[in-house]
Amino acid sequence: MNGFSEVTVVGAGPCGSFAALNLAKHGVKVTVFEEHKEIGVPTHCAGHLSIKNLKRLGLDSLPKGIIENSFKGAVIHAPYNTELTVKFNSPVTCTVNRALFDKYIARLAENAGANYMLNSRVKSLKIKGKTVEGVILQNKQVFSSKIVIDAEGISARLLKQAGLPSNNRMIVKSVQIEVENVKNVNLDLVEVFLGNNYAPGFYAWLIPKRDGKAKVGLAVSRGNPENYLQKLIHKHPKASEKLGTTKILQKSFHSISLGGPISKPYSNGFLVVGDAASQVKPTTGGGLILGMTCAKIAAKTAFEALERNNFSSSFLRKYKQICDENLGLDFSVMLKIRKLLNSLSDRKIEETIRFFKRMSLEKTFQKIEDIDFQGRSLLKILWKPRISLALIYLILTFLSNP
Q1: Torsions phi, psi of 190, nearest 5?
Q2: Which fold has domain 171-257?
């Protein structure tokens, strides 16, 4: 049996469901296909989110049980044991139970009128000429639509079928575990571990929960992330004190694209959002807030296309234009920071953290207003003498030998 929906969304993660929610609010007939039997399973990321930007997206009143903890700042562990703590007066971030969070966004979309089809894997796009006109399911059912929104995640199979550029630039592989019996942690702070001995090309994290458990993980640009995680747990001088006797409760693996958004996230009858479009912070690997921001823009673009009955690439390109206007500066700055970080040796990273500490930049960093839109946040504080000096130091560090 064939089906029809004005808009088809592939993937019921937060970005797909948020696009569906914003379309359904406008009365658009939208169907979401999810390949798994249950939304939010398996879980891939830590769900560490900005409280400010959850509110910006209208998600500041999450139901009880979704938020696992809130944080006032972070402890950064440099490669050779220097520690830099940045702490705010009130919580600025929180962690959410990703399975419950994903289900909540989907439930909002469903209540607004979106239709969900679980255990329904999209095998390929339905393409006529050069226009996407729907999807073909694994069971060979054809589902037609005027626009397809691809929110399938980093695998991006459909993106490739549409002939769009891939998101395979600067990929890191991550592993995350949930553990119990964590010791000596400050529940108000997340912890970040830098250094090529434990997380080459990225970093490791420890995110405590209020129930005595913690989310621990890392990503690497080379090697086996699971081997590096075991090394962190048992051999890192600081992490081993906290994690050496923990018991692993859950484990998940995920790849992260740090190369910035793909150059063309649209084609005739087709829009791409979230991880599939590499709408991920190159600095931290976080993608929920920025991806959902782009999903909202995609929904608005799709709604306008339906109103005008124009699904051409030339019209849908406004999706990228609006994303660039809102996020282009931030992605550009974050990508430059990522390339700088990747170029630094452990010794240079250690020296930089020590310099920041000597300059008492912790207090200046507290003035950063937004951890997601990092480009505009950094520009607002660049005029401060301490930050200007730190920038000069970083430039000289970048130009000097490793």
Answers
A1: -85, 160
A2: D-Amino Acid Oxidase; Chain A, domain 2 (3.30.9)
